[in-house]
Fold these 4 entries.
Entry 1:
Amino acid sequence: MHTLRPATLDDIDFLLNVAIEATRTQGRLSPEADEPGWREGYADWTREQIAEDPTGTSVIELNGRPIGRLRVTRHPASIELCGIQLDPAVQNQGIGTAIIRALQEEAAARGVPLDLGVERDNPNARRLYDRLGFRKFAEDDREDKLRWRNDIWTAEVAAHYDTPGDGMFSADTLGPTTARLAELAGSGRALEFAIGTGRVAVPLAARGIPVSGIELSPPMVEVLRTKADEATIPVTIGDMAAVRVPGEFSLVYLVFNTISNLLTQEDQVACFRNAARHLSPGGRFVIELWVPELRRLPPGTPATVGIADPDYILLDTYDVLHQHVTSYHFRFTADSTEAHLERSPHRYIWPAELDLMAQLAGFTLESRHADWTGTEFTAASPSHVSVYRQI
């Protein structure tokens, strides 16, 4: 059984040796590499890291013997796995997998994603991360950025997500929504970010608009496939802030507050930029989003009750420092005092901040209404439909 302990300055030599030996064993250490220079720089960097964040760097031990190095940075909105190296003698024994799964459990408990970077010349690590559910969300000139999220959109949730004819699936809701989107798409193609089970995409396609989608949850797409095949509504699995779909679109849209599922401002800006990459000149990006209910929070009260029905209660807890909301959904079954709890994390966005994100991605605000029917947006409006046009 492995254990972790905080690294100290006395561990510097071991941390250097295990990092370089793990890299060499992977065949990723060039024969021309300046090993003495690399060691000197790595030692200085490690000393700085230990001084700045004493708990961020850990020594991995097995039966009291040091066998590896772990570097983790904990941010308010994410956990970042910065590096893990194991002595080649203990590799392929499940230790690295166990460490990553523990970090996934920590991230799930906090309601934040787990991020890491993997060099493109390290296919073994990439296969491990793929198997553990990480998906690419960004890249730089050297490595791919991967992200794992606790999948709240599980097969169980997907199976019970649709409520045909009721709530957000009612004709009174979907009629105005799809009519407005069809008007904005015109004669072009539409792309839905976070297409889910096709609540909006299926009736929009029925209006004659070619619709494609991006979706992070395969179980949600499986439900969509019971309504429309791949040829009718093609879907790409991945992160809506990063995944590229072939072709150009006249309309990209994001409904029902889904941009708030991206938990950092950086990711939300990336979502705008990804929308811009998909649009033809002059194309539109439409977002439906709720207005944060901070005016309902008395001093010292961290939560609001959004819905209080006999069989369902919605409770939102606010972290105003980081603009985070956690929604707690309590669903009661008939003739029972027990409730089923689901939890979803969000980052709330003020309309003005949303407009600035749009500007950074090359959009300008074309219109903002309180709903899909064109009701005037006021200071009392609980939500808005904002239409951005590419400049």
Entry 2:
Amino acid sequence: MLDAIRYLVDNGTKWRAMMADFPPWDRVYAFFRCWRGHGLVKEFHDRLRGRAREMAGRDPEPSAGVIDSQSIKADVFAGVDSRGFDGGKLINGRKRHVVVDTLGLLLGVMVTAADIGDRAAAHVLLAQVAAAHHWLALVWSSPSSNAATTCAASSYCPSGGSWSGSSPT
């Protein structure tokens, strides 16, 4: 079942287009929904990230991260309520806000309409990441991001850390 889900995510196929080598799509989907409902998908991801960090000679829990966002054009079939216009990049669509550790492994992600500012999204996303990763003490943002001042003005700085406009070396 896990291999079937990984295949689906890796290849971007639809549930009903699952290869015949895997169990029927509706059974795989039922397992996925059950696992997601019980938080097991996140648990699998977190354990894999911890092991990858250990294999790289790092502590399983990150102490530093990087936040950034990317605007993406939305398909014409995407709901109008989930799209927005990013005036800085001239893109009508959605924006993904991502926090990764210094190895580039995912710590948190949030998708918004493209017109949501980086500062507002970072405020929410950082609160979620801080709740899950208590050792996180420092989060860098890109200099062009307005998110750099969010942490200083909020109570969501993980472990009393701070935002910095410079990138990690």
Entry 3:
Amino acid sequence: MARAVRELVYDVLPGTIEVVWKKQGSVGWGIGPKEFTEQFANLMPIKSRPCAT
């Protein structure tokens, strides 16, 4: 799913800059490399967890 989101971002805005935060396990996309001021989207994939019943 994360790869599909990445493809969508680049399909819509091919000039997007991707910033990866390995320590946090997340990625952000924006119009420039500044961490938060130029970002328009972030993604932090997590492992699925069983639903509580």
Entry 4:
Amino acid sequence: MTTTEDVLACIAHRVGDQPMSESSELTDLGVDSLLLLRIITDLAADETQEIEPHDLARLVTVGDLADFVGRWNGGPRP
């Protein structure tokens, strides 16, 4: 199961260590649409799952991403 800490660590790995929290906006961290897909793939339990593009458009904050990945991986986010 993916936690918020997992998501924060993955983002930090991709964009560098910088202050961020669950309420940080992805664009403020330098996360664009391609990088977002890479982060989601890094966190995927099954990399072959399909992602609906309109679902990605709703991801604004780190918390939104953590919620999405938790659901996408088959369970609620702790």
